[in-house]
Amino acid sequence: MRRSLLFYPLSLLVVSAYAGFGVFEECFNILDAKESDGGCRDHKARLTTAWKDACDAISAANDAINFMRSAANTETEKPANWAQEQLRINPMSAAMFGSRFDDRGVFDSMTRLSVIDTNLFSLMHACDGSIGKWSIYCTDADWEWLKETREDPEQPGKKISETQSTMCGSGGVWYSKNRVGTESHYREGPPPKKVLGVSSKKGPICGFDKDYMAETDMSLGIITLCKAGLDQVVDIKAQEIYADKKKPFSSQTKSSDLDKTGGMAITLIHEMLHMVGALKDQAIYDDAGNKITQRVTMWNTKTNKYEETNTDVLAYGYANCVDLAKRKPDLAPRNPDSFSFFAIAMYLKDWDWSHGYAQRLA
Ligand SMILES: [Zn+2]
């Protein structure tokens, strides 16, 4: 999960053409080709299920927030299910977004509620197809690294250094002939990383880390799913079986049933927030308020080599989202994964998921 720095123009939010809520093919341009050619044909059935789940979860989250907002605004009578809904919604909103509530159980920060609301609103429009179609690819294995001295496959007789000079900062360019419509066949990026004992034939997105799930290129409107992202479970309701594993509460719980239960829908909601909300993944912090970092090997554009460097650990996964909400509550409603987990929890509404696993509501 990685993002480019360009922001999607928000003016497109007003373009409206209802397509059908959560209908995968109405919301994405899909290359109808086999996986080795970058297409999603082999994954279409599972993606269709996961996208419908993602949109049903987004809708449930939107309903939950709207309920809490309208109930809070009613000075007189509360809806009959007000107390019951508070038990379901408030702890999860606190766990993911750092929400706090007054003694009546009403959100005490309308600013925070508005940020949550705005992002859910954008996601609702992603699901009805009214803010335009993005492209989705199911591998990057069709991309080939061409050194700048190679001939450009699309301009015989000319070298890459001549035809793609502005993209050659790393000594070459990535090339794929299998793209939707008029999308560019060239992509800037560092060369494949050679890993001991493993072939250096790696793509420009998924090839750097086997756990890498997906990338969103906000400037081009493209989501690329990688193997780890595609291998996750789909059909959230069927996964609700995880909810039946009773576990004693522990604040030390580090892996969560919600990560597994949400599966591919979590990834899709996450990537759509990069697209429609222009949200970036937030860093996580230690008790002293410093960013937590990790050592990784990355391409250094100054030395043109792969080198070890420190990068921020980002708030992926349930436990990191809880940490972020505790330590940086103002940043939590701007973190994509926090929305993914909140939405899945609101969709599986018989449970309090605020500890990361299911506790049945009375
Ligand atoms: Zn991300």
Characteristics:
alpha+beta, globular, metallopeptidase activity, MetalloPept_cat_dom_sf, signal, 3-stranded antiparallel beta sheet, disordered N terminus, 362 residues, 34% helix, 4-stranded mixed beta sheet, Lysine-specific metallo-endopeptidase domain-containing protein, single chain
Q: What value does the average pLDDT take?
A: 85
Helix content range of the residues, please?
A: 25-40%
* Low-pLDDT windows of residues: 1-16, 248-254
Order of helices and strands: HEHHHEEHEEEEHHHEEHHEE
In total, the number of strands is 11
| Separate helix tally | 10
Determine Rg (CA atoms, Å).
22 Å
Strand order of the largest sheet: 1-2-7-6
Backbone structural class: alpha+beta
First-last Cα distance: 37 Å
Strand composition percent: 5-15%
Protein name: Lysine-specific metallo-endopeptidase domain-containing protein
InterPro entries: MetalloPept_cat_dom_sf (IPR024079)
GO molecular function, one term: metallopeptidase activity
Keywords: Signal
